[in-house]
Citrate synthase
Amino acid sequence: MNTAKGLKGVVAVETSISSVDGKNGILLYRGLDICEVMKKASFEKAAYFLWYGKWPDDYELTTIKNELSQHRMLSSEMKQLIDGLRKNMDMMSVIRTAVSSEGTMDYSWKPTIGQAIRLTAQVPSIIAYRKRTLEGKAPVSPDPALNHVENYLCMLYGSVPSKAHANALEAYMILTLEHGMNASTFSARVTASTESDLVSAATSAIGTMKGPLHGGAPSGVIDLLHEISEATHIEKVLRGKLSKGEKLMGFGHRVYKTLDPRAIALKERLLQTAGEDPWLDLALETERIAVELLKEYKPGRALYTNVEFYAAAIMKAIQMEPELFTPTFTASRMVGWTAHVLEQSEDNTIFRPESVYIGPDHSVAGKI
């Protein structure tokens, strides 16, 4: 029997949600190149596009904005649940526990887009409520006048964010809405394939995202940018690392063997706000110099920035703590997870892969 550890290279589903071509550096949302998505999309538009498979008209956009806004407020029961959790519980575990409590509501099979909207609206509120209560600060109520990303930042930090910061984080969250059959998306579809509810599928995905091999924070990139900012000489720092054979964090990707299309799209959006934030400007200049030096030190390797490089710069610019990186990733990826569960429900077959037994045979086991 042919085996593939980790199911690598095994086709498990057919999907029309996204396509990831690592060899050629292409990411498509519903057949549209990610750079084109970024040119025309807000978070709400992109989410609608993934859920419905078409762009919203003005009425539909207003409707989905209102629906997201209506579901931002946490119930008193959920707040009590969060308040009762251990103070040292990590944020991903808090999100997993809080989201799973939504299973007490009507989330029966088959899943609906309305349920997907509610879960997407709730996660940023869960993160913000937990963060502020742990800090001894009063929770900030959702502001219906703000869009999804602006409201998230406002609830986290207590004030309306600058345009540059809101635009930068929105760009990152659009780019992380969806990324093919990754581990967390697969776990969501496996759970849904049993005709379990959307909350259970989302909880499975969150638990998978928590693992450092999947949703790990780009702390190494932040350390690099810190070192550069303190040295005030980008090329000297980078040459020093490359001369010692050290890896430049944020360059190269295990999937994309050429330019990471998400990094390209994110860079284009950040260039629109050049000069408005020193950390974002530092990242742009660091990338320019690093790419040239990598060609010199590692010819033929085709090492370019990945999305984590600019994600780290954005998180640093908005002063987001590293422990909130993966939770914020989760807040955006909820859209992709729920889109996949909805798709799974339309043509469902329970997942039941085979395994290869490598233990002792019965004759040996019987003598023990």
User: Anything to note?
Assistant: The mean pLDDT is 89. Residues 219-317 form a domain with the Cytochrome p450-Terp; domain 2 fold (CATH 1.10.230.10).
